[in-house]
Design goal:
With 389 residues, the protein is of the alpha/beta class. It is 32% helix and 25% strand. The relative contact order is 0.09.
């Protein structure tokens, strides 16, 4: 069931640590390679020798115990197919959520780009703490919520580690759930830059985060991904760096014929300067300066007109009358889907890690995705698009 898969199993310092011995047995019976990484406090609850005997691998604990030239937190992250942290304490959850990497396990989590499962276990009051709940919402991971029952501290409430079988089943599901395998997905992201002169340009506030979340998600779901972006991005899938709308148009057209789906998440400038100055425009005594702008190519409309079986998805960033403008845009552009988001809200959209969108389709259908982190929104978008195939 898990042959050829490497599971990076993180164990933190909670009483439920002893239960993970059975999880290791289940992984090994399914022919997985299990690499255990413990926080130092985890060894107060389960011994290193026990974990090594069950996993048939050395157990990693210390961050700088480097056997070769490879930093351990990077080499572990590269080799594993999935990361499972169980039990996950409130302390470790909060560290990962805030980017704190002060031990080997949290350093690996910061560097890990594939699927991650978090199975929390803690006192019920800790679980209900609003700070812990907010930190959980920050994580772009699969969270297996704790169960209710009698806790080691004597309380009765929600905080018990979920059933080991549930962690195992979710691991199998994520490692084998690749609905986009065999599909080429092209995604654009970021705001284009239109030069005025060598030192000035026209652009917008797009951070490229939504497009990046879509690209990462598509890769995790098995797709062959090409990200065309105006941002500096280092990924294991194909990344094409562009600058202007014209550059982006050329890059999209180059990839379009072989694509199964094109997602235009980039904020493409509607206009560019008619004549870019070759030298810096000097300040004069005049109170005004006139710059003539001309329309950029409408990439979304052009590729929608040329599609031959491809799914074409556009984005619509509006500051007012969101749905009305989105309906008008999807009719004009001819794309299959249009994803509309309200950029007037400060808690979503440009530069935010969160979004709330409405998906419109060419047949008049409409579905709202409630506010969530952009990775979750990206997953829901692909579920909505490919769940209808």
């Amino acid at each position: 069931m898990l042959s050829g898969k490497t599971i990076l199993l993180g164990i933190t310092g909670g009483i439920a640590s002893y239960k993970i011995c059975e999880l290791i047995r289940m992984y090994k019976r399914a022919n997985a390679n299990v690499q255990v990484v413990c926080t130092p406090n985890a060894l107060n609850f389960v011994t290193k020798l026990t974990l090594q005997t069950l996993s048939k691998n050395n157990v990693a604990v210390e961050e700088f115990d480097i056997k070769n030239y490879n930093p351990e937190h990077i080499s572990f992250a590269d080799k594993a197919d999935i990361m499972v942290i169980a039990p996950a304490t409130a302390n470790t959850i909060s560290k990962i959520a805030t980017g704190l990497a002060d031990n080997l396990l949290t350093s690996i989590a910061c560097a890990f780009t594939k699927s991650v499962i978090i199975a929390p276990a803690m006192n019920c009051n800790m679980w209900e703490n609003p700070v812990i709940q907010e930190n959980l919402r920050k994580l772009h991971y699969t969270i297996l919520k704790p169960e209710s029952g009698y806790l080691a501290c004597g309380y009765l409430g929600k905080g018990r580690l979920c059933k080991i079988e549930k962690i195992f089943d979710k691991t199998v599901e994520l490692l084998n759930y690749k609905p986009l395998t065999g599909k080429k997905i092209v995604i654009t992201s970021g705001g284009t830059i239109e030069d005025i002169d060598p030192v000035r340009y026209i652009s917008n506030y797009s951070s490229g985060k939504m497009g990046l979340a879509l690209a990462d998600t598509a890769k995790n779901l098995g797709a062959d991904v090409t990200l065309i972006t105006t941002k500096d991005v280092c990924k294991k899938y194909n990344v094409v760096k562009v600058k202007s709308a014209s550059d982006m148009k050329n890059a999209v057209e180059k990839e379009f014929n072989n694509a199964d789906c094109v997602i235009m998440a980039a904020a493409v400038a509607d206009y560019r300067v008619k004549e870019t100055a070759s030298q810096k425009i000097k300040k004069t005594d005049e109170d005004e300066i006139n710059i003539t702008l001309v329309k950029n190519p409408d990439i979304l409309k052009e590729i929608s007109a040329k599609k031959q079986g491809q799914i074409v998805i556009g984005f619509c960033a509006e500051s007012e009358n969101l749905i009305e403008n989105a309906k008008e845009k999807i009719a004009k552009k001819g794309c299959d889907y249009l994803i509309a988001n309200d950029i007037s809200r400060k808690d979503i959209g440009f530069s935010s890690d969160y979004n709330e969108v409405t998906i419109l389709d060419k047949n008049g259908g409409m579905k709202k995705l409630e506010r969530a982190d952009k990775m979750t929104i990206a997953h829901q978008i692909f579920e909505e698009i490919y769940g209808k195939e």
